[in-house]
Write a structure and sequence with these properties.
Elements (H helix, E strand, L loop, with lengths): L1 E6 L2 H27 L19 H27 L1 H23 L8 H4 L11 H20 L3 H30 L8 H32 L5 E6 L5
Antiparallel strand pairs: 1-2
Helix pairs in contact: 1-7, 2-3, 2-7, 5-6, 6-7
Amino acid sequence: MVKSTFKSNPAALTRFFAGTTILLAAINIVIQFAIYRLKLKKEWFLLFNMDKEINIPTLFSCCLLLVCAFLISLVMKKAKKQNHLIHNKWNVLKWVFVFLALDEGLQIHELLIIPSIKDMLPAIFTVVWVIPYGALSIFAIFYFFPMVNRLPKKIKYLILLAGVIYVSGALGLEIIGSFLVKTEGIRLHSVSYGLITTLEETLEMTGLIVFIHALSTYIFVFQGEKLKINFRLSSSQN
């Protein structure tokens, strides 16, 4: 019989995700210069281009979001014993991340970009979906803050930092990039816009990684949980 046991390690998990993010960002920076400076075909780089969808960066982002949902499920186990209201809020947050993973993969928010509405809005709201998603983000701050505020100080500040980083990328840079294109500050198909989208996606991934680190530290350090996965390979003779 061969037995292997994996023990939870928040720092190792964070390093793995951070390393993958840095690698994807570096590849994408090279891609932007290859396309817009060397005039190579975009089709050659679809698999890693963060400005495109349904590729490796998109899959990685979906995985990060689902890892967040999984870790929240672990947090909920003890939250249920302590406070029913707090448990319900963690449950809502879990499904928020499941939806965001679906949205990331299927680009649901793009359905809100209706040309007839877009033309009526100021340049800052060229990407129409930032309006409802921005409003929901503000609501989420007030809804989830009492829950986050009950956490240990280190975890609370990490989660707040994760939220600021993620929203800065998902909404902030999306608004800035679209505004600059609409006002002709930069061209849509240019290195400048490509680098903005790279930073946008990198900030989103970074925010998720900080959140994962906060949750995993809370679960495995503050709550003292242990997550073990055993792999057994055995043979028996009858």
